[in-house]
Amino acid sequence: MKRKTFLRWGGAVIGVAALGPALTACGGGDEPALVASGTLSPEEIEGLFYMREEEKLAHDVYAALYARWGAQVFGNIIPSEAQHTEAIRLRILAHGLIDPAAGTGEGVFVNAELQQLYNDLVSMGRPSLVAALKVGCLIEEKDIWDIEQKKLQVQDEADLITVYDNLLCGSRNHLRAFHRALVAAGGAYDQPQYLSVAQWEAIAGSAQERCGP
């Protein structure tokens, strides 16, 4: 499937150690205690690092567009995106890795391509509310596709499969919410850029899911 080149980013692998217990919390709280565990592959580590910043990107773009337009759909989804990036952060720490996004402020990313993507998406959402809602649809579509790819790289770490499945469920719900808001605002999502038309329609046209345990 052909995809827009300006949205095709890769994540740099930053750490090498891999220690830690399974942990399934999605919210804040104490840092996980680290114990010896199996070693993650470079692909699994790259996946965690990339998704940590991509979920942060979704949060930060939505915060910028909420400040611009005040649309409640952005306000509703921002806390969920904060939970998503926190869930990945906890997985990174639980496996004894260094969080690549530690200490970075809103709209700031270690991955240079994600930094440029953030800048581009915020600019795309500034002209109108319809444009901003299309950005929301685009982010969630890209997020679903990327999580699926990272999930394929997981070998036998059940904790990573669980967190990715939870993120996928949340992203599908977010896509539905943005699509409903876009249609209500008189707009339309012209053409999926990552998912097939059939995949897009199956998600956008279905009911909200209950995510997590």
How would you describe the overall organization of this protein?
- By secondary structure, this protein is mainly alpha-helical.
- It has one domain: Ferritin.
- Helices cover 58% and strands 0% of the residues.
- The chain has 6 helices and no strands.
- Helix 1 runs antiparallel to helix 4, helix 3 runs antiparallel to helix 4 and helix 4 packs antiparallel against helix 5.
- It is globular.
- The N terminus is likely disordered.
Summary?
By secondary structure, the protein is mostly helical. It has helices at residues 42-69, 72-94, 112-125, 129-152, 158-184, 197-204. The model is unreliable at 1-37 (pLDDT under 50).
SSE topology:
Elements: H1 42-69, H2 72-94, H3 112-125, H4 129-152, H5 158-184, H6 197-204
Helix pairs in contact: 1-2, 1-3, 1-4, 2-5, 3-4, 4-5
Count of helices? Answer: 6
Strand content: under 5%
CATH homologous superfamily designation: Ferritin, core subunit, four-helix bundle
Helix content: 55-70%
* Category by helix and strand content: mainly alpha
Low-confidence stretches: 1-37
The succession of helices and strands, N to C, reads: HHHHHH
Name the shape in a single word: globular
* Residue-averaged pLDDT: 85
Examine the secondary-structure arrangement and name the CATH architecture: Up-down Bundle
Our measurement of the CA-to-CA distance between the termini, rounded to an integer number of angstroms, reads: 33 Å
Name the CATH class.
Answer: Mainly Alpha
**How would you characterize the largest beta sheet?**
none
Q: What is the gyration radius calculated from CA atoms?
A: 17 Å
CATH topology: Ferritin
Number of domains: 1
Number of strands: 0
